[in-house]
Amino acid sequence: MKIFKKYAQLCVIVVFLGVSATSGAANILFAHVDDTGPYVDDGNRIRDMLAATGLGHTVTTRFLDAAVYNDFNTFDLIFVYDLYTGLDNEANQLANYQGIANWYNSLTNQNLILDGRIISSATPWVNPPETAWIQNYANQLESRGGGLVLGTDHANPGQTTGAFVDGINIINSLIGVDPFYSFFGGPQALVDSQSPLFLNTLMNCSAAPTEKCINDNSTTSFAPVGLQANGQFLTPVAYHGTTSQAFDQAAVSSTIGSPTFQTCDDGSPPPCDVGTVPEPSILFLFVAGLFGLDFARRQIPR
């Protein structure tokens, strides 16, 4: 009878460990820089990718021009979406930019993704939408202890201002990274196959069918790369052209490093790991093994 009680206890441990290992649910803020314009719905479609059934994330939507918020520290991840023209420097917006920057600057794990073509992942810009790509932003950041995603579109050609970047670039400045800049016509950005953000399910590149690409047809900006004023290093994740052009033409960049660019030793925990968790079946085998050893021990004559 005692051995069955022991087995029941071990089964409880298996269930607990299985739940713990598969729980990647995050408390996410999806923040629109403004609440008016033709691309609000596109942003909401990106938000809905994060709120999809089965992921377990709690997603809150806010408009940074509507009110001043003081609870940013209650969120694990913050996505800022700026597809809004104009200076976007009203009092509420500036206060919230500072609040988001304060939150990021105080994080133990300052993980960052900058996407200069984020709307290109949503319909009608691409069909089917790049849902898994956006969801992997959350997965990778959550596995590293949380972080910030800054997503926008193009600036004026050759500039760091104009079009859609004026609001979000204020946040860039406040956290000590370079601005989104300039203009690129697309249609795709090649994804670094060694980046932890890479997915095999991405579309094949039209110009290089053996490579994987993300959509980039919304006339986008370049994301900042390289060593930043805050001491962090931003590695290209998706880019135009070849690896030799990646630091000049990054569509997406991140503090998450890559062996391709030898940026794994950047101090971010973990720098280049994919960020997966043990499967429950492995945990079951582990605990079942312990049970087997305990059973065998009890059979040895004393």
Number of helices: 6
List segments where confidence is low: pLDDT < 50 over at least 5 consecutive residues: 1-23, 276-302
Terminal Cα span: 19 Å
Report the average pLDDT across residues: 85
What does the largest sheet look like?
11 strands, mixed
User: How many structural domains does the protein architecture include?
Assistant: 1
Give an overview of the whole structure.
A hairpin with a 7-residue loop joins strand 8 (203-204) and strand 9. The strands form two sheets. Strands 1, 2, 3, 4, 5, 7, 8, 9, 11, 12 and 13 form an eleven-stranded mixed β-sheet that branches. The protein has six helices and 13 strands. The protein has one domain (25-276). Helix 3 (91-105) packs parallel to helix 5 (166-175). Mean pLDDT is 85; it is low at 1-23 and 276-302. The protein has 302 residues and is an alpha/beta fold. It is globular.
